[in-house]
Design the sequence.
């Protein structure tokens, strides 16, 4: 028999912002805030006093909401820039900077995916890499019919965008091993978590190259699709699964399942570490077969103490 996996069960939400599609949780250390996006509502949400709050089981207050006129899909910090002034945001047509201080949802497109822009597509998940570049996926936008393999994974700098992997349907979560030599990447509809060799050396000689893509984990035990992810300090991947109400901890070397977090709503979308706590974002559950609890808690945020810290997320270099 295989070794028993570690289990965590969360029964109550930490916050209930009723997201339509909550995604991209990010811990902003400067303000002790958890920020995330609601892609469908075109919002960025800030929850304050994540660590400082006396009651760790519930958010100290409801979110501060920044309303945009375009869908934000992910956020990141910019190297050398106070996130209270400006942050990086994935938007429909590419990579943008958001004027946080102005507070009016004003953004500036930095680099588009394509010239001219393809109205069928929008951005999805994205992450700054160890060299300060930004990897951002594109996919079929809402209202454009069934999702098609017309998206891709793009590599952005401050003034360019280059497609690395074409023909993707829903490119999703990414992360790096603690030694920075392995990159993880999710493709949701094929239920695959990939690993790639990554060269962390800066400058010439192949710095930042990604190669030897292989399947690290394929989900075959249920109907869920892998969504966003984070990597912990021990090198293991915490992968959210959309459709089964869970997050799996997957061994970063063997691909074996080491642990499972269960939440009371089906559509887990992404995770974020704050200290040794794991935050889980979710989306609304409007499925015809959804039970009452999953419907009620769809779009909530969950918090669970897992006893391990996460890898710090990298910053984008302008």
Sequence:
């Amino acid at each position: 028999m295989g070794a028993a996996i570690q289990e965590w069960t969360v029964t109550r939400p930490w916050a209930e912002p009723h997201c339509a599609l909550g995604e991209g949780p990010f811990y902003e250390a400067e303000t002790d805030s958890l920020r995330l996006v609601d892609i469908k509502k075109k919002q960025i949400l800030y929850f304050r006093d994540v660590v400082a709050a006396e009651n760790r089981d519930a958010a100290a207050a409801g979110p501060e909401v920044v309303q945009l006129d375009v869908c934000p899909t992910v956020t990141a910090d910019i190297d050398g820039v106070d996130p209270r002034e400006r942050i990086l945001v994935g938007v429909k047509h590419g990579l943008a900077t958001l004027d946080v201080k102005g507070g009016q949802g004003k953004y500036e497109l930095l680099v588009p995916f394509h010239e001219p822009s393809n109205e069928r597509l929008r951005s999805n998940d994205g992450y700054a890499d160890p060299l300060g570049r930004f990897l951002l996926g594109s996919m079929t936008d809402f209202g454009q019919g069934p999702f098609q393999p017309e998206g891709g994974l793009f590599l952005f700098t401050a003034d360019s965008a280059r497609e690395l992997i074409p023909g993707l349907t829903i490119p999703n979560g990414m992360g790096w091993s603690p030694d920075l030599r392995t990159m993880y990447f999710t493709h949701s509809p094929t239920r695959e978590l990939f690993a790639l060799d990554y060269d962390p050396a800066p400058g010439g000689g192949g710095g930042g190259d990604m190669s030897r893509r292989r399947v690290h984990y394929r989900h075959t035990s249920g109907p869920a699709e892998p969504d966003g992810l984070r990597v912990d300090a021990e090198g293991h991947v915490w992968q959210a699964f959309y459709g089964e109400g869970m997050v799996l901890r997957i061994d970063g070397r063997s691909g074996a399942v080491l642990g499972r977090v269960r939440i009371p709503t089906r559509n887990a979308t992404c995770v974020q570490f704050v200290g040794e706590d794991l935050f889980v974002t979710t989306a609304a559950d409007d499925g015809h077969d959804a039970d009452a609890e999953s419907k009620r808690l769809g779009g909530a945020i969950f918090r669970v103490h897992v006893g391990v810290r996460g890898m710090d997320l990298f910053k984008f270099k302008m």
